Amino acid sequence: MSFFESLAAYARAGHVVWMAPAWLAVTLAVKRWTPEARRRVWPSTVLLILAALLVLWGATADALGYDDQPIAAAALAFELLAVVGLAQVAAFTVVLPRIGVTVPRILVDIATGVASVVVLIVVGKRAGWSLAGLITTSAVLTAVIGFSLQDTLGNLMGGLALQADSSIKVGDWITLGPGGPAGRVSEIRWRYTAIETRAWETVIIPNSVLMKSQVTVQGRRAGEPLQLRRAFELFVDFRTAPTEVIAAVLRELGSDPVPNMATTPAPQVLFTGIRDSYAVYTVRYWLTDLALDDSTDSAVRIRAYFALRRAGIPLSIPAQALFVTAETEDRRARKHDEELARRRAALARVDLFAPLGADERATLAAALRPTPFAHGEVVTHEGDPGDGLYLITTGTAAVQLGVGERAREIARLGPGQFFGEMSLMTGAARSATVVAITDLECYCIDKAVFQTLIAARPEIADQVAEVLAARREALESARGQRAATSRAEVQADLVDRIRGFFGLRR
Fold first, then answer.
1. What stretch of H or E contains 375?
2. What string of DSSP letters covers 221-266?
3. 59 and 116 fall within a common domain
4. Please, which pLDDT band fits residue 294 given cuts at 50, 70 and 90?
């Protein structure tokens, strides 16, 4: 028989020829619907190429008069294994996902493995030898295989148990044992479970080890959203009352939550102890994005730090710190004079206080209260009550109208500018929201500070009202509103409100 006659005989038997359309159909389906799974077709492609080469080899051997049965059996094995691979891809990657059925990867692997073993047994019988008989008739071989597969079977059963009881699922964040690796479960295979850590590492854990270890599933609680409690400590000067520390931090975290921090449950601040030179407070909050733990911790610490600074609450100084600078009266007086000079310079840039005399500005400068804010913090909320004015010394703030998605920025304020004058002079609610674009250093003036000045010189109310009327007109113009009354009428109304707010006679 010639080479071409032998090759034709293989073709009539269906070897490889009928597999080409099947391979093409599966490849096109994967490319059309699941292009990310194209790599799964490669093993079947390689097997088909090997089968085709064996067909050519078998045809050549037959033409030369050699026995081609072993080659034909090998070609059949490769073809059937390719069939298994293509069927696996078609069923579990294309068809079932299209109808909404998701099969765990471990079951796919087991089904493929069982089908491959069946193929080997069928091909073995056709070739004249029996793999099953070889195993059952050799006690030594059976024992060797049993011992060698002990760990493999343990991993296989462990993977099946994990999939069956859903104790761990792909996407869960887990910690293995005390001090073990922690990360997000990326896949569960028949031999191992892979977790991706926050350090961009992938840890491979055998399923048998996973089944024997204590596993903590982070952020999972029945009937609750996925979120994880985080905690850190603050060390504060113990001379400050605990109620003041707790109120300052909770006020900040409750009014302006940090991104990725849950609002329910609410943050907690606990007084957890007193050490040799400081008091210890534990701040707790719930994290909503478990991948962003350290960055969110940092943002919450920053908010707590600035909240304590604004409240005038000092952090702790280690007991072993040694101060070698002599704090003389001259040095204290020099520092006091430098600070007063900075405050007078800040007040001099505010047209609202132009009517004040030098002595009055000096009195006001001495009463200014430093109020720092961190980048992203809300300084004032539109509609909130208030009786204070803020002077910006360093940094930038944005003035916004509206809330949520409807909020729009109308102005930016920088060093030398101020806001909150209507609240200071009339007690009116905040007319806009002010957000710190950078870290912001401000001085705050409240009603109590201004009360003594305006009580001594009531005519200040008339002069201040003129400035306020002009600023209100500018704000209404930015909102796109037309003034319903003239500036003179607004000024007269403001004079009455200022006098009423400060209890002056009209």
1. none
2. -TTS-S-EEEEEEEEE-TTS-HHHHHHHHHHHHHHSPPTTB-SSSP
3. yes
4. very high
